[in-house]
Amino acid sequence: MKRKMLAAREDLVNKVLEIASRKNVKLYGMINDTLELVIRADDMGLSLEEVVNQYGIVKAAKDAGFVPVVESLLYEIVEKLFQRSKSWVTKRWYESGQWYGKYYSVKLPQDPVKAFKEDICSFTWNVSEFSVAENEEDKGELVVRCVSPRFPFSYTILFSVFLEGALNMFGYECVKKGVSKGIIRLWFRKVGGGLGAEGSF
Amino acid sequence: MPKGVSRGKKLTLVPTDLLERLMRISNREGKTLYSFVSEIFEQALRVYESKHTLEEVVDFFELMETQKASGAVITPVDVLTYLIGELYPSGKDVLCERWYESGRWYGKYLVDRFHNQDQVDALGKLLSVTRWDLKEVLVKEENGVVKVRCVSPLLPLENTELLVRFVEGVMDSLGYRVRKEDFMRGIVLLEFEKE
Fold it and tell me: Is the ipTM of this complex over 0.85?
């Protein structure tokens, strides 16, 4: 096999060399494996950084107690239970949102709203638009916006109360709502308290 | 120090074909090969420092992409368990049927996605990587018999049974029938044979 010399940052090569020694593998083999994975990632249309970041996002979802489920099955069971006991199931999703609010307040007390927003944005790959931003017309307000044409009405309601539960735990009170099939718009105002610190928007 | 190599840089040998491919990628991205390689090493070190390997990360990413493409979404485990727990007593048969059908669809998807690979092996990898609620997953084929073992101490009976139906649906699409079925809360032991 033909080989060529490749110049790389000395400090990085030294660190890779340290790991290779620890793992009892040759530097040459380790670098080759790494470069092959870069090419594999490129074949998927991604950079290695994007793959590593995505891995971090999914690991965060796992750590936060989310699980994958078939979307159609989830909507079906939500719909059934929503028709049968709307108030109970709504309460349960609100409480789950509160739990996540607490979770992010404890996990990242310096800016739990931002962390929650970023994670939800990453976890909801079936959502076409998701944002949590300061209201341009009223700087004291936060506006949560979520659009997903795939959401049935029942799931839209439940996802909206989930978000409301979390934001309440950060010390925000919902002052206005607009919820229709697949579209959520919630307006919040800071009321103080909550378990988290101030959001930074 | 070899001529042309400045202080702070180190030379390392790599196969020519790999180097050529890397050069093509770095050119496409408008980066110098040197800075591109530095980024790669930085990412690799970031992964190794978190006690994982780059291969694990890339494999995991590929499997998650497969899950996403198959129509999976993520949801809080507590609400999912609640929803299933509420519906199961009165609608067990319907739920089981729906999970079985969903498994059959997923099996067909695996046949298509992994048409030139070992689909049983793919199922095992997908279950172990993407079913985070399972603590142990084993799917192996021996002499034409596929054994599936899943363990999760926190999985309620309802969810356990739905997992069984889902796996049976997948295996049906892969051309296997149930040979042995044994499950209890949080433990699944299944055996399948070729139809």
Answer: no
- Interface contact A65, partner B, CB < 8 A: yes
Residues in chain A closer than 8 A to B61 (CB atoms): 41, 44, 46, 51, 54-55
Distance from CA of A84 to the nearest CA of B (A): 10
Q: What are the residue ranges spanned by the domains of chain B? A: 16-51, 62-194
Encode pLDDT of A77-125 as tens digits. Answer: 999 999 999 999 999 999 999 999 999 999 889 999 999 998 898 888 8
* pLDDT above 70 (res A129): yes
Residues in A 32-61 with any Cβ partner in B closer than 8 A:
32-42, 44, 46-49, 51-52, 54-55, 58, 61
**Span B149-165, pLDDT tens digits:** 999 998 999 999 999 99
Q: Model confidence over B35-85: pLDDT tens digits?
A: 888 888 898 888 888 888 888 888 888 888 888 889 999 999 999 999 999
Q: Which residues of A touch B55 (CB under 8 A)?
A: 33, 37
Long-range contacts of B67-70 (CB under 8 A, 24+ apart): B67/A68, B67/B126, B67/B130, B68/A125, B69/B113, B70/A70, B70/B106, B70/B109
Name residue, tokens 């800075």.
Answer: B35
Given this model, what pLDDT does residue A20 score?
A: 87
Domain boundaries, chain A: 10-45, 72-190
Closest A-chain CA to B41: A12
Which residue of A lies nearest to B86 if distances are taken between CA atoms?
A81
A55–B72 C-beta distance less than 8 A: no
The Cα–Cα gap between A155 and A175 comes to: 21
A121 touches B at CB < 8 Å? no
A30 and A16 Cβ atoms separated by less than 8 Å = yes
CB A161 within 8 A of CB A144: no
Looking at CATH, the fold of the domain delimited by B62-194 is given as: Muramoyl-pentapeptide Carboxypeptidase; domain 2 (3.30.1380)
